[in-house]
Amino acid sequence: MGNMNDNILLIMIAGALAMLFSFWKTAWINKQSQGNNRMKSIGGSIADGAMAFLKAEYRILAVFVIAVAFILGYANSGRSDSSAMISLSFVVGALASGLAGFLGMKVATKANNRTTHAAESSLAMALNVAFSGGSVMGLSVVGLGVLGLGGLLYIYSNMYGFESYSVVSMVLNILSGFSLGASSIALFARVGGGIYTKAADVGADLVGKVEAGIPEDHPLNPATIADNVGDNVGDVAGMGADLFESYVGSIIGSMVLGSSILVAGGMDLNFVILPLLIAASGIIVSIIGTFMVSVKEGGDPQKGLNQGELGSGLIMVGIIYLLIIKILPESYSQGGISYNSIGVFYATVIGLFGGLGIGKITEYYTGTGTKPVKSIAEQSMTGPATNIIAGLGVGMQSTAIPIIIISFSIMGAYYFAGLYGIAMAALGMLANTGIQLAVDAYGPISDNAGGIAEMSELPSEVRERTDKLDAVGNTTAAIGKGFAIGSAALTALALFAAYMVKTGISTIDISNPMVMAGLFIGGMLPFLFSSMAMGAVGRAAMAMIEEVRRQFREIPELKKALEIMNLKDKEDWDEEDLRVYNDALGKAEHGRCVEISTESAIKEMIFPGLLAVITPVLVGFVPRFFGSDQGPEILGGLLAGVTVTGVLMAIFQSNSGGAWDNAKKMIEEGIVVNGQKLKKGSEAHKAAVVGDTVGDPFKDTSGPSLNILIKLMSVVSLVIAPLIK
């Protein structure tokens, strides 16, 4: 136990370093100038809106956490293979996930107007501020994940001892509650944040850009503040919760499978502790990677971000090799098959490169200027219908290569290291989560910075710098979504394998009609879940559209200013026109739009979230009431179905939405098609805006939420496994 405790303490120190780094970066951001009074006011409104949403969301989730903790404690009390302490793990996991989202969004809303102000002086400074804000999110996620798991493992291992397989198995059952807590918060955060951001975005785009003909992020648009708030609640807090869940799930799945490995006929705890040691090492490497990110004035921010990601990735490969060679025995067996330690390294690296491959394919299908995206822009010339058809086609096509990469990753990892190899492949993909999430969270901060520059009517060169950062942010967001989907697939499979170990199932027979029924129900769930999410966005967006129209219609100052903007270019305004415009500034009722998005998101997120939690429980337990002991097998079929269709639907929706978005941006930048220049305000642009509006809930609500759906259902199944076997 002595060596075990020493390793756990080292792991917790790494988690503490991540938090100290986050606090240091937060303090540095706080010292940066917020710009002029108008910028301060806009930044403050965005921060207040984001916090108001988070408080409303967490009040609802607190009730859910308390109720589930009570049920978990009662169901597992007095069992030899589990304990009521699982409720403590669940609560700590939920609190850690919620705290990571809170810290990340708090700093992101501080960094946005500071990035805008930094862009007034240089691109390099603006990148530094935006990325620093993102790094707080990234390091908070990995720090709290490792601290939470390490701390609980330290407590439980000393409470129960780690002397036999049955005790280790019980401790890991209790620890899996942490992953369930993280997953539950993640789903609600993703769904709620996604509904919020898309309701605001659709209202701002359709009424502001299409109907009123005013630019994006214009200060006269009542939905602009809500739209900027949405970037934070959806793409910062939501993405953070998503990857927190994958990160924690991959670690626990690896630990459970590691406990089933035999070395010389007995258990080797090194296979259990290795995933946490890799995660702890990833924290140190991610911190090093943040210092590699830089850009010169006029340079490409993407290259600066790539330096950090690729540099830290290469270092991580070396550290993983050293850890595996040092602490794992040369050979082991799992499921009656012999493997060697170098195979574990190969499996882990396969996952790491598989994630990079999926990211690159995602970039091809969603990036500005690529052939698929250009084809959507071209087909916008004949109207919204052909734009939408083209976007759907690109999204469907984009599923092929990522699925092949995932399939080869699974087969390769299993070949080299069995089921443990699959779990380690998922962990390898997520080893550098700290810097990967930092790069991803940088995107919405840059997007907000551009919006603040527009609303503050700063000089064009400022907006050019923020747009340069934002364009890179769109690419990193698309790659991040691809990465999140790939990691979700491997994490879900690792949790699925852990579930089979816990239930004692060796095979799932799809020729069994009951299992086939579970398979079909599981395959249906991502479609039902997506329909709920899309319907929720539609209903929330309708309320937002009506509110923006009402304000444009009923607020006299806004109405007069819009009439002038539609009649004359700004350079042709006289003094009276300028007076009318200035009178309209500050008249838009931004707060009402924030309220509508918040109320809609909170109300609409509950049922889809409960669906994901309750379905595995029903499928696992209900067969008992009919005298059947096939509950574990049927639930296994359900998990197989939801994983396959969930991954496919997630890739399709995320990439369709990303492609539609960048096709619109290509037209706004002035693409030439068949000798005709397409630009803002053209019929092709209006068609592209409609396509982008359809794609927004695809890429920011239902698509990303499916990542969490498949993982949450797997972890719920893992938690209830001792109760249904």
SSE topology sketch:
Blueprint lengths: L1 H30 L5 H40 L9 H34 L3 H38 L4 H47 L12 H36 L2 E2 L2 E2 L2 H21 L10 H27 L3 E4 L2 E4 H26 L4 H9 L4 H14 L2 H31 L2 H23 L4 H44 L9 H42 L1 H12 L7 H10 L5 H36 L5 H39 L2 E2 L2 E2 L5 H42 L1
Antiparallel strand pairs: 1-2, 3-4, 5-6
Helix pairs in contact: 1-4, 1-7, 2-3, 2-6, 2-18, 3-4, 3-5, 3-6, 3-13, 4-5, 4-6, 4-7, 4-13, 5-6, 5-15, 5-18, 5-20, 6-7, 6-12, 6-13, 6-14, 6-18, 6-20, 7-8, 7-13, 8-9, 9-12, 9-14, 10-11, 10-19, 11-19, 11-20, 12-14, 13-14, 14-19, 14-20, 15-16, 15-18, 15-19, 15-20, ...
Provide a compact summary of the structure.
The protein is 83% helix and 2% strand. It is an all-alpha fold and 725 residues long.
Describe the structure.
- This protein is mainly alpha-helical and 725 residues long.
- It has one domain (2-30, 37-724).
- Helices cover 83% and strands 2% of the residues.
- The chain contains 20 helices and 6 strands.
- It has helices at residues 2-31, 37-76, 86-119, 123-160, 165-211, 224-259, 270-290, 301-327, 341-366, 371-379, 384-397, 400-430, 433-455, 460-503, 513-554, 556-567, 575-584, 590-625, 631-669, 683-724, and strands spanning 262-263, 266-267, 331-334, 337-340, 672-673, 676-677.
- The strands form 3 sheets. It has a two-stranded antiparallel ribbon with strand order 1-2.
- Strand 1 (262-263) and strand 2 (266-267) form a beta hairpin.
- Helix 18 runs parallel beside helix 20.
- 61% of the residues are buried.
- The mean pLDDT is 84.
